[in-house]
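Incident log, structure service

09:12 report received: a user says their structure output differs between two submissions of the same chain.
09:20 pulled the input from the user's history:
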Amino acid sequence: MPVQPQHEQPPQSSPHTPRPPTDEDDPYVARIKRSGCFNQHEALQDCYYVKRDWRACKEEMQAFRACFAKKQQEQQ
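09:34 re-ran on a clean worker, output below:
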């Protein structure tokens, strides 16, 4: 007779169980999300990841800076 696999329950989390850090835990990422410029930030990060040279990502950097400056001006 074949053995039926037992379905294991995932471990229950408790206040003592550490959880992996997330972007929401990072105050830098949270500030960028609140700024409304997260898409520009992600484009800049993606560019750097691919090109490994900030100088090759000038357009993305300018777009991020412009967005951030505009949002800061709107708050004043």
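09:41 both user submissions now match this output. Likely a transient worker issue. Closing.
09:42 reviewer note: Helices lie at 27-35, 38-51, 58-75. The longest helix spans residues 58-75.
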